[in-house]
Design goal:
Length: 1363
């Protein structure tokens, strides 16, 4: 932002006029744009708007300006009518209703903005009328009255009478401090009332549970999934009794060991691992380190290491004696697993699905346009010309013999060009008219006959239709909701002979094995999709324990009290404060599963320190380059190179003042917009934070410090003063007078912040109401509008989220400016009041109508940041005033200011503890209410107390609202000066209601842990009449793939979209979504591919319109007879005459070596046999051919030289597949799964006399970090071994190869390349995350170290004293 010395700005009141004109212009443009965009209709909404809000698809910008109107709990739509008609709705919108619609975080933030407005309004009416006349009247007469500097305290102290009035300033400073403290009390009390209302609502939901599922608008996985309640298995209260364990050491990364760890230590006496913190926060490094050393110094550790002399004697220390009643009951332990291969496959599959759907839409558009042109020629009684239809030369060049897979040979040979076009017109003509692709007057000529012909054709079937007429699944039956869908253009395309569509099939150029060769893109993407789906299915068929464990785990207790106790007394490992860091489990939607699946520790403290130091250096030294940049773009420097500008500005003084003050401000504002993005990039790349809330909190704290340091402190102090401070660290340099620098710099900056507030009001209010015109939402609008596939449009229409990490530091900066200049220059208060008045209305409107949320924090982080950071601003203002009084030698004012700083600091600590204690108490109440630990009568008593509006807290300690019309001076219960964090209450003596619905427990849900899986059935009670209102419980938790092969035909209507919900998200088991979320093997296509995409009118197609019929089925790797997996493809002949497999696997699943004889080698030089129509298009050099961008080579790849440079046999440099498998010692044959999709042809190793399978061992070596390699590795390894084995057998090279076989080879080679790239990337990332300073954390302890300080609890024998 530069500094006050180098920043040009006007100190006169006339400069405010210029700023106001610019601000009004920005506001008018933004408000006008918002009103125009939010009223713009789309598609059918233009011609048939209907009544009410209507569908989201009927609005062009509906997803941007009123996205919450289509949520499960919809917000009221934005009122129409006049401009700014939404203002009365926002002003009168009650806080209770907003809490019900948006949750505590959003409602608390609006309450904070209201509190800021009330605070500034109060001082505009009190402090400003007192100090402003005093400054103006008693300042020195030499100061111009038109200058805002006269309203500063620096002008007042130039006179003797002015100095005598400084007692008023210290009194008003105390008044500012007390008023803001009162504002914080009001904000905090409101936060606890909002939380109490949410808890009561959650308790009420236990009586009327909702079994329906509403997806979250922002899922934390990059693939489409539509799970049901049966797939998700939500359990009320699961999150409240689950903890998340980070930095789990390798020896504890098993369900059994981690369970014994908590049972062992929680049954013994434990010292507090931190000083004075509650369960809501994880203790910091210094906190837990000091507590650890203090506990060691007292010689009161959890377990005393036994000496050699008394090793066999039982311990007599009371802390080592277990308490049987204190052993917690653990329902489930989930160790996060490294499934990066599965995540990569799912993300790539989603992209291939989109490309395949785009290819189908392109096929439909091209075919319909050709039919439209042919219909026009037919109506004009003109013959079908060669240019009008690509099928003309298909009939002329057709061979007598055709591929039997292409359809009926008799039909192919008898249809002429005119007959084929007539067939296309009969089948597709009705859709040309339906989609209005030609003028309406031409409809009546062929409408009736074409519809009759199409229905007749659909009844009789086609010789090469995908599904025979006799098939029970097609045509669809007349009964059933989804079977009576209207016939679509996709049904018509499927009914046509595939040879009739060859002239319109989209093409693609291959870029890997067959580089430069052209094949049909639908066939290519279908094969690639089927291969990825098979690999995903194989990975998901494995047990979760077959994947490598990582350093994050989730432990679910039977009682929420045990989870809270673990967070409080076992926050870190008793013997190593850097491991086993325990915190309450976040919401399922808050987890970033990609980061959870990383093998490295969650936080390396040395690495975090280095990154934090780098961020601080960036924050501190940001001032210097910005000051240089602002100086370069100043009017004086520009005028040197542009003389004409100088002469113009010399004659136009007003324009010069506007440009001189506005241009640097705009430039710095644009640069400041990049800071949150830079901090977000640092948080993502330099840290491995597993939750979005923790990452956003990290960004918030850093951005707050950046703003305060650069926009307030360094800007006022200036670069020259800062340079003198830095020079003082030299050897012979004199120490600068810091107090003199502070006293002289801050008062002079008041006039700048007055104009800055005007400009900031327009920027923040105007750009936010127009949804940040210069930022991401509207920038991404053209890409969303141009999408042709429903899959991508759905992602683009997701509601936007409100970035608290950007707005809270920004608004706190305004509060800092106001409190710092409250007594230095009170002229800032009126403009601060205007700012918060506008911001409160604008942000409230955005939160009600637009923004969704990624997670709900119940106001914990927001309130703590508001309390602590705003009080830091008060301390800063008091410190600046203290320095000024020291320079003026006002001893009394100095003493009072020092006492005020001390009292404010104490209040900051006490207020933080009180808020955290109340949050912890509310967590306990919520856990008891949701987890059925409260009595029914007590709940009714609570409801009676609420209905009577009593002014006391209810019996459970929740904060209630006072009765309207009454004023009470009673202090709320949460205000306590005790350092205890938990208030003890007498236990409840009444029994709970036995007729209350019983919540689900993990004891009735199947676990993937091996120790729990055999006993699943023993925990299932027999229920003959389950409660239909309760959440369904399902024992089968294996991942599923939706089977779409029902009796509804290949094309069905896409289900109606389910309303999303971000408010009452269910408590889901902490299973990896990449492992358990179902996927669908269907293409999501628009019903009208030629019109505007409408998500309300789409279909699902279960087969692909490929050139070869046998390859069109989705989700199954097919193309050869009796072939089970894609790995066998690499060993089969590619000649059509050898399609019958000659490889006979042995009993062990491994074929004999003689089966490799006669295998044909493929190197990419073969000619691909294409259908005649496609071959002619390729020869003609058709321009509309898709290009596959070549895969970017890995930076870390080092391929071995093969000594061959030319293309031909053995010239393809296949990547060296490094073995990432480990074997059990003494084992000669690995375990083979039966009926596995990817049970592959496993070849004997050249240097081994026995057959072995490169399988992954179930448990890795302790401390190893290896890339994730499973089904994809099996596929690549077998393909490479197959190529190696070809060197021992005579080879035959095919000159020609079918298109289908070439595509199979291409996608297999691409998959091998993708596997190697992913492995090298993960290996390089794993090696780069380790620091030599933290390598001791990853070392495997030897036997002596284990005996001295075990990382795992001793076995039961050791607990009894036996070695």
């Amino acid at each position: 932002m530069g500094d006050i010395q180098t920043r040009p700005f006007s100190k006169n009141y006339s400069g405010l006029i210029n700023q106001s004109v610019i601000a009004v212009g920005i506001t008018v443009l933004c408000v006008t744009g918002q009103e125009l965009m939010k009223r713009r209709r789309r598609g059918k909404g233009k011609t048939q708007p209907g009544e009410g809000l209507g569908s989201r698809e009927s609005w062009e910008f509906g997803y941007l300006f009123q996205g919450r109107s289509w949520a499960w709990r919809p917000s009221p739509p934005t009122p129409g009518g006049w401009i700014l008609s939404w203002v009365p709705q926002i002003v009168t919108f009650p806080e209770e209703k907003m809490n019900q619609l948006r949750g505590v975080d959003a409602t608390l933030y609006i309450r904070f903005l209201r509190g800021c407005f009330y605070f500034t309004l109060l001082h505009t009416l009190t402090t400003f009328p007192i100090l402003f006349p005093i400054h103006v009247e008693f300042s020195e007469n030499s100061i111009d009255k038109k200058s805002m500097t006269r309203a500063s305290i620096s002008s007042l102290v130039t006179t003797k009478q002015g100095k005598s009035l400084l007692w008023i300033h210290i009194c008003l400073l105390i008044w500012v401090t007390l008023s803001w403290i009162a504002t914080l009390f009001w904000i905090s009390h409101g936060a606890f009332m909002l939380r109490a209302a949410r808890i009561r609502e959650a308790a009420q939901r236990q009586f009327t549970p909702d079994s329906s599922y509403h997806p979250h608008p922002h899922p934390q996985y990059a693939f489409a999934s539509n799970p049901t309640v049966e797939d998700l298995q939500p359990t009320p209260g699961l999150r409240l009794r689950t903890i998340m364990v980070s930095n789990v050491p390798p020896l504890l990364r098993s369900e059994k060991e981690l369970k014994e760890y908590f049972e062992y230590f929680m049954s013994r006496k434990l010292e507090r691992p931190a000083i004075g913190l509650t369960t809501n926060t994880q203790p910091g490094f210094f906190n837990k380190s000091i507590a650890y050393l203090f506990n060691r110094a007292k010689r009161l550790p959890v377990i005393h290491p036994a000496t050699q002399g008394s090793r066999n004697e039982p311990s007599t220390d009371s802390s080592d004696i277990p308490d049987p009643e204190a052993v917690p009951v653990i329902d489930r332990v989930i160790i996060a697993r490294k499934m990066t291969e599965l995540a990569s496959l799912l993300e790539r599959r989603e992209e291939i699905l989109r490309l395949l759907e785009t290819a189908h839409i392109k096929l439909a558009k091209t075919t319909l346009n050709a039919v439209k042109k042919a219909m026009g020629q037919k109506d004009a009684h003109q013959p079908f010309s060669r240019s009008s239809s690509r099928a003309k030369f298909v009939a002329q060049q057709r061979k007598p013999a055709v591929d039997p897979e292409a359809g009926d040979a008799t039909q192919e040979g008898t249809l002429s060009e005119e007959q084929r076009m007539e067939q296309l017109i009969k089948v597709l003509g009705p859709f040309v008219d339906q989609f209005e692709l030609r003028p309406p007057p031409m409809k009546h000529k062929t409408l009736h006959s074409s519809k009759h012909a199409f229905q007749k054709l659909r009844t009789e079937g086609s010789s090469d239709s995908d599904v025979p007429v006799s098939s029970p699944g097609y045509p669809p039956a007349s009964n059933g909701r989804r079977r009576r869908h209207k016939k679509t253009v996709w049904d018509a395309l499927l009914s046509l002979p595939r040879s009739s569509l060859d002239a319109y099939q989209p093409l693609i150029n291959l870029s890997h094995l067959f580089r430069g060769k052209t094949v049909p893109s639908i066939d290519y993407y279908t094969a690639k999709l089927n291969l990825l789906t098979s690999l995903i299915t194989e990975n998901r068929a494995k047990h979760a324990n077959e994947y490598d464990p990582v350093s994050t785990a989730f432990v679910t207790f039977a009682e929420p009290s045990d989870a809270l106790r673990a967070c409080k007394y076992l926050a870190v490992h008793p013997h190593n404060p850097l491991t086993c860091m325990v915190s309450m489990a976040p919401e399922y939607q808050d987890l970033d599963w990609i980061r959870v699946m990383k093998s490295s520790f969650d936080a390396e403290f040395v690495k975090d320190w280095v990154v934090s130091l780098g961020v601080w250096a960036f924050t501190v030294f940001w001032l210097f380059p910005v000051s240089l940049l602002v100086g370069l773009v100043s009017i004086q420097n520009i005028s040197v190179f542009w003389p004409g500008l100088k002469s113009y500005l010399d004659k136009h003084e007003w324009e010069e003042e506007v440009i001189q003050s506005f241009l640097p401000t705009l430039l710095v504002a644009l640069l400041a917009l990049l800071i949150p993005l830079i901090l977000l990039l640092i948080a993502k790349k330099a840290h491995t934070i597993t939750t979005l809330s923790a990452m956003h909190d990290r960004i918030m704290t850093r951005y707050y410090k950046f703003l305060i340091v650069n926009v307030l402190v360094f800007f006022c102090v200036g670069t020259a003063a800062l340079q003198s401070i830095l020079d003082s660290f030299r050897a012979n340099a004199s120490a600068p007078d810091v107090l003199e620098i502070v006293a002289s710099s801050f008062p002079s900056a008041g006039p700048f912040y007055v104009g800055w507030q005007i400009f900031t009001t327009a920027m923040h209010g105007g750009f936010e109401i127009a949804l940040r015109t210069l930022q991401l939402p509207l920038i991404m609008y053209p890409a969303t509008r141009s999408q042709v596939t429903p899959r991508r449009r759905t992602v683009g229409l997701r509601p936007r989220t409100f970035n608290y990490y950007y707005w809270l530091p920004t608004h706190l900066l305004l509060i800092h400016v106001l409190v710092v200049f409250a007594v230095l220059n009170p002229f800032v208060f009126p403009f601060g009041t205007l700012y918060f008045f506008i911001e409160t209305g604008v942000i409230k409107n955005q939160l009600i109508h637009i923004y969704a949320k990624n997670y709900e924090g119940d106001g914990k982080l927001i309130l703590i940041r508001i309390v602590r950071y705003s009080l830091d601003g008060l301390i800063l203002s008091q410190g600046v005033f203290l320095a000024y009084m020291v320079v003026l030698k006002k001893t009394v004012n100095v003493g009072l200011a020092a006492v005020l700083i001390i009292l404010t600091s104490i209040f900051k600590i006490v207020m933080t503890r009180m808020c955290r204690a109340q949050f912890e108490h509310d967590d306990i109440v919520e856990a008891n209410a949701v987890c059925s630990s409260l009595a029914e009568d007590d709940m009714h008593e609570t409801e009676r107390d609420d209905t009577e509006n009593i002014s006391e807290p209810d019996i459970h300690g929740l904060i209630t609202r006072l009765k309207p019309g009454k004023f009470n001076f009673r202090i709320p219960e949460w205000v306590t000066f005790s350092y205890g964090t938990i208030r003890h209450h007498s236990p409840l003596t009444r029994q709970p209601n036995p007729f209350r619905p019983t919540p689900a427990s993990f004891s009735r849900i199947g676990s993937r842990s091996p120790e729990n899986s055999p006993n699943i059935s023993s925990h299932i009670p027999s229920e003959k009449h389950p409660d239909p209102m309760s959440f369904p419980l399902f024992i089968d938790v294996e991942p599923k793939v939706h089977n779409e092969d029902d009796f509804t035909g290949p094309v069905v209507t896409h289900p109606s979209p389910v309303a999303w919900d971000d408010l009452m998200t269910p408590d889901l088991p902490y299973d990896n979504p990449y492992y358990v979320r179902p996927i669908s093997n269907v293409l999501w296509l628009p019903r009208n591919p030629c019109g505007i995409l409408d998500l309300d009118d789409t279909v699902d197609m279960k087969t692909s319109i490929t050139v070869e019929l046998s390859t069109g089925k989705l989700g199954t790797w097919i193309g050869f007879t009796e072939v089970d997996s894609p790995m066998q493809m690499s060993n089969l002949s590619l000649e059509p005459s050898l399609m019958t497999p000659t490889l006979q696997p042995s009993a062990s699943g491994i074929p004999s070596s003689g089966s490799l004889l006669g295998v044909v080698d493929v190197d990419g030089t073969e000619e691909i046999e294409l259908p005649i129509a496609i071959a002619k298009r390729v020869e003609a050099g058709e321009s509309d051919i898709e290009q596959i961008p070549p895969r970017r080579p890995s930076t870390y790849r080092h391929r071995p030289s093969t000594g061959s440079s030319g293309r031909g046999q053995g010239s393809i440099k296949r990547p060296f597949i490094k073995s990432y498998r480990s074997f059990s010692e003494g084992s000669t044959t690995a375990r083979l799964r039966s009926n596995s999709i990817m049970t592959t042809l496993e070849l004997p190793r050249p240097d081994s006399g026995h057959h072995s399978s490169p399988r992954m061992h179930s448990t890795p070596r302790v401390g190893t970090l290896r890339p994730d390699a499973h089904a994809q590795a099996d596929f690549a390894a077998n393909a490479s071994l197959s190529k190696l084995s070809l060197n021992f057998a005579p080879l035959r090279r095919a000159e020609n190869i079918s298109a289908h076989h070439a595509i199979l080879r291409e996608v297999m080679a691409e998959e091998e390349e993708a596997f190697v790239d992913r492995l090298e990337s993960e290996e390089a990332q794993a090696n780069s995350t380790r620091s030599f300073l933290t390598s001791w954390m990853f070392k495997k302890p030897n036997a002596a170290q284990v005996d001295a300080a075990p990382s795992t609890p001793p076995r039961p024998a050791s607990r009894n004293g036996d070695d």
